[in-house]
Design a protein that fits this description.
The chain has 280 residues and is of the alpha/beta class. It has a domain of 167 residues: 3-Layer(aba) Sandwich (Rossmann fold), CATH 3.40.50.300. The protein is 35% helix and 20% strand. The chain is built from ten helices and ten strands.
Length: 280
């Protein structure tokens, strides 16, 4: 599904943000990208869809070489990559429904988009997604009237409106309280698995990464130093990624999360999840 090879990013200042990055995602899995500040996590996510232009390397989504595309071709390719941002990136003065439908802007004409004339099937899909993320009844609410967790759920619904082949998620929980952060991660994982869509999630919280991801990639100084499952994340691995620290309170214990609560694998009761998410 996604192949990255020898990806490098060097800024004009000479700072090397990424060096020789290479990995493959060949299953609909949730891949958490962890590492200290400045390790290159956000740069990696943004190089994949060329919000940041890589210096060299290969990024291939299915059979498409993303780095070889011209501007017009890149716009089309970005339809297949849903992006979820740390700061939500919503249009504050627009309603929830208008923000969600903006995920279809690449598929309708300029004038239809300008007049907000979306096909009925898109509107139906948007209502279904709002219900799925726990925001049924919020379609006419302005984005600036929402809580942080609600805004992030709108961002998730907007990205899924693209019907993407890949989800790129940049620090989805950084601005959220711990309870809401867990709800958002649980929702992301369940939606990605339900739709068979691989997701790359840049996340700073190691415990959340361990609790919710299928695979973890650790970056340090722009290079991959770990690639494995959450069960493979030992104190030695964390020390290699972050440096010396007392990791005993961070590593998830078997059957429990790092905070001592019950294991948080996505629940089977999806309706229960929606009610829990809406309460946040």
């Amino acid at each position: 599904m996604l192949t990255i090879s020898n990806l490098e990013k060097v800024y004009p200042t000479g700072t090397k943000a990424l060096s020789g990055i290479g990995f493959t995602v060949d299953a609909p899995q949730v891949v958490a990208i962890i590492g200290p500040s400045g390790a290159g996590k956000s740069t990696l996510i943004r190089c994949i869809n060329r919000l940041v232009e890589p210096t060299r390397g290969l990024v291939k989504l299915h059979d498409t070489d993303i780095l070889s595309l011209n501007r017009r071709e890149l716009r089309r390719a970005r339809r297949r990559m849903g992006m979820i941002f740390q700061e939500y990136n919503l249009v504050e003065r627009l309603t929830v429904m208008e923000n969600v439908l903006s995920g279809r802007l690449g598929y309708v004409s300029f004038w239809k988009a300008y007049r907000r004339k979306f096909p009925p099937e898109d509107v139906r899909a948007a209502f279904a997604l709002l219900e799925r993320v726990g925001l049924a009844g919020y379609q006419d609410t302005r984005a600036d009237a929402l809580s942080g967790g609600q805004r992030q759920r709108v961002g998730i619904a907007r990205a899924l409106m693209q019907k993407p082949d890949l989800l790129l998620v940049d620090e989805p929980t950084a601005s959220l309280d711990p309870k809401t952060a867990r709800e958002i991660m649980r929702l992301l994982v369940e939606l990605a698995h339900d739709r068979g869509t691989p997701a790359l999630v840049n996340i700073h919280d190691v415990a959340l990464a361990q609790a919710f991801s299928d695979r973890i990639i650790g970056l340090r100084q722009g290079a991959i130093v770990f690639d494995g499952t959450s069960g493979d994340v030992t104190e030695a691995v964390l020390t290699e990624i972050y440096g010396e620290e007392d990791w005993s309170t961070t590593i998830r214990r078997e059957g429990n999360d790092a905070d001592g609560g019950p294991d948080t694998k996505p629940p089977e009761d999806k309706n229960g999840l929606i009610r829990e998410a809406a309460a946040g």
